[in-house]
């Protein structure tokens, strides 16, 4: 069978690209340990108010962990608790959130924090706030009539 020269070049290019991309994904997943976030942490959505750490939402300093603070949020139609919170500049913070009713979003505008908050599951994200200012938290999953009013604020202060 005769394969045209350009066809051969194109086939080699295609197969090489495939091998390169699969290697990048393989090294990233198995050597660098990049895995998709799991949602294996569960909670009873009817007992959120009495389950730690959601019985005390807000910022808490922690010792002996890879992060300095835990920032706990409870989402419910149509608000987040706490309504606004102050975080010290440069703090490594683990954001922990859950929902009491329906699926909500948890997007911190201007950062790469963007979680889905589902009833029955705990969503977590570790981040460092290294710029002062006010960060708006928005719900980006339509949750009902008051969805557009659902917001909170993180103030990063020195
Ligand atoms: Cu919403």
Automatic annotation (TrEMBL):
Family matches, as Gene3D superfamilies: Cupredoxins - blue copper proteins
Keywords: Copper, Membrane, Metal-binding, Transmembrane, Transmembrane helix
Matching PANTHER family: CYTOCHROME C OXIDASE SUBUNIT II, NITROUS-OXIDE REDUCTASE
Ranges annotated as spanning the membrane: 9-32
Domain Cytochrome oxidase subunit II copper A binding: 55-158
Subcellular compartments: Cell envelope
Species this chain originates from: Robertmurraya kyonggiensis
Catalysis: reaction(s): 4 Fe(II)-[cytochrome c] + O2 + 8 H(+)(in) = 4 Fe(III)-[cytochrome c] + 2 H2O + 4 H(+)(out)
Domain of life: Bacteria
GO CC, alphabetical: cell envelope; membrane
The protein's name in its UniProt record: Cytochrome aa3 subunit 2
Gene Ontology MF annotations: copper ion binding; cytochrome-c oxidase activity
Function recorded in the entry: Subunits I and II form the functional core of the enzyme complex. Electrons originating in cytochrome c are transferred via heme a and Cu(A) to the binuclear center formed by heme a3 and Cu(B).
Family annotation (Pfam families): COX2 (PF00116)
Presence of keyword Transmembrane: yes
């Amino acid at each position: 069978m005769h394969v045209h020269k350009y066809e051969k070049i194109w086939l080699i290019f295609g197969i090489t690209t495939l091998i390169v991309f699969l290697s990048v994904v393989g090294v990233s997943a198995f050597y660098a340990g990049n895995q998709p976030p799991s949602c294996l942490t569960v909670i009873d959505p009817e007992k959120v108010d009495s389950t730690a750490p959601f019985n005390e939402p807000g910022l808490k300093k922690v010792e002996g962990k890879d992060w300095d603070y835990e920032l706990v949020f409870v989402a419910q139609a149509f608000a987040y608790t706490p309504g606004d919170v102050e975080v010290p500049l440069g703090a490594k913070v683990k954001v922990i959130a859950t929902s009491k009713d329906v699926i909500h979003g948890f997007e911190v505008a201007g950062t790469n924090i963007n979680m889905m908050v589902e009833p029955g599951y705990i969503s977590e994200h570790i981040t460092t706030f290294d710029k002062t200012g006010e960060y708006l938290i928005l719900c980006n999953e339509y949750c009902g009539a008051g969805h557009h009013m659902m917001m909170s604020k993180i103030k990063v202060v020195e």
